[in-house]
Design goal:
By secondary structure, this protein is an alpha+beta fold. It contains 2 helices and 10 strands. The longest helix is centred in the first third of the chain and has 14 residues. About 9% of the residues have low confidence.
Length: 171
């Protein structure tokens, strides 16, 4: 075998290895399942694990995914938005350090409503885009952002953009 061909083959394999891994939304058991180069994490709090990027922004998610802002709805200061007509993701009449998001349903709140949640409780993750439930793996459903304490992230934080993404089926 020609030494230069063998060296070229080894170089190409070495360059391709870091790219191996699963796509956003794929099942995983550890971070290495998602990306060997550490660029993606395995969120084990999701059923079967969920490959994602933590701390995304409006341009850092791969094209098959969207950056979703999640807010902790169990935070003690979560209260109904005083202005029930406020658009999700706006301050409305919430405190300056809060946003109005759709929260619920839950055991304590059977119907969805607009709630003020602390901006500081925001976490951002890339989630697999979907058009309908058939686009998601088993145990996951296609849901719209701007529901259940989530918002799609855009370059304009005052803009409300809804996006559909694969999320665990709720019991």
């Amino acid at each position: 075998m020609n030494p230069s061909v063998s060296s070229l083959t080894i170089l190409l394999v070495g360059l391709l290895l870091p790219a191996c891994g699963h796509n956003i939304g794929d099942r995983c058991a550890s971070n290495i399942d998602c990306a060997q180069d550490g660029s993606r994490i395995c969120d084990l709090s999701q059923p079967g694990g969920y490959c994602t990027l933590d701390g995304c922004d409006d341009s850092s998610c791969p094209s098959e995914s969207v950056c979703v802002r999640f807010f902790d709805q169990m935070y003690p200061s979560t209260t109904p938005c005083p202005d029930h007509n406020a658009a999700p993701g706006t301050i409305g009449e919430c405190q300056p350090d809060e946003l109005c998001v759709v929260c619920g349903p839950s055991s304590s709140q059977p119907e969805p409503q607009s709630c003020c949640v602390p901006s500081a409780s925001e976490r951002r993750y890339c989630a697999l885009k979907c058009g309908n439930g058939g686009d998601c793996r088993g145990g996951y459903a296609c849901r719209s952002s701007a529901t259940n304490g989530s918002l799609a992230l855009t370059s304009d934080p005052n803009s409300i953009t809804t996006a559909k993404f694969c999320a665990p089926v709720e019991p």
